[in-house]
Structure prediction request, 354 residues.
Amino acid sequence: MISLRRAAVWLAALALTAGLLAGCSRERIHQQESYVFGTRVEVLTWDASEDKSRAAVAEVLREFDRLHRAYHAWEPSELTALNQAIAAGQQGIPVSPELAAMLTEAKAIAATGDELFDPALGKLIALWGFHTDTFVPVRPDPAKLAELVRAHPTMADLTIADGKVTSRNPAVELDLGGYGKGYALDRAAAILKAHGIANALINIGGNVLALGSKGDQPWRVGIQHPREPRPLATLPLRDGEAIGTSGDYQRYFELDGERFCHLLDPRTGRPARGTQAVTILITPRPAGGPQAGTLSDAASKPIYLGGDHWRDYAKRFGIEHALRVDADGKVEVTPALHSRLQYGDGIKPAIVVN
Prediction:
């Protein structure tokens, strides 16, 4: 069912681009695309010269390629080398300063969300077959699944200090797929600013970060409907804001009429149930902590896996702008995000105030 997953991401990107380009001067907007992190990426700049825009975006795309190669979870990379060392029981494993910082931040985010966002679950991801771009729909061996759940690898098993990593649990296998796109958004924003690009939109497979505006109007983006080929809603995205979605329609397979998505619940070892999609909007964050892009990616996972307690998990991260589509298709939204949204036809959300 890979084709279904790719179609969903592509439709989301098409909805986004169509809304951006409609009614605006094509001469003032520059758009460049690539394919990295297993998805389509798109960078748009506004009101910058073509040469300036191309030079800046070219550096962004080179950075995306570097991150993809350096921290790939199953092709040879610094991350796979670290995983091999952990599995072999090595202690005090040297890592690059960047990877040490990423793991430290990911560990803190995981702790805030009760380890529901957990990059230590690489073995579980592989067991379900979601560690490749060409996975085969199959249920994992029940005994192996139970063994991994008992081993309970988490980010809390890691100690990161003085540029070295130690794991007290050899079952830890790191996969930064739920963190890396957000981190890349923040890196892209920094590069564009360094090139003097003040107005841009960065889209990595539906995780989007805005800089500045599109002329006298804010950038406008769409939230993909999890079951239909259309936006559920659209909203303005302001300077420094990022939006991210976790959904069961993005990467999944079906067996015997049952949907198995890539969002795995570490408590059960199985794909999560009870939610079709969660979207969060992150406003600019103070320096010294996770930035808007990173949180738009990583924090959406515990909120999604939190099910009916999704609002509690959003509060833990200080997120006031959040929307959930439950298993039955009911849309729930916080007041702050509701005030920003323009809903599609027939969408009637329930406003959650607690």
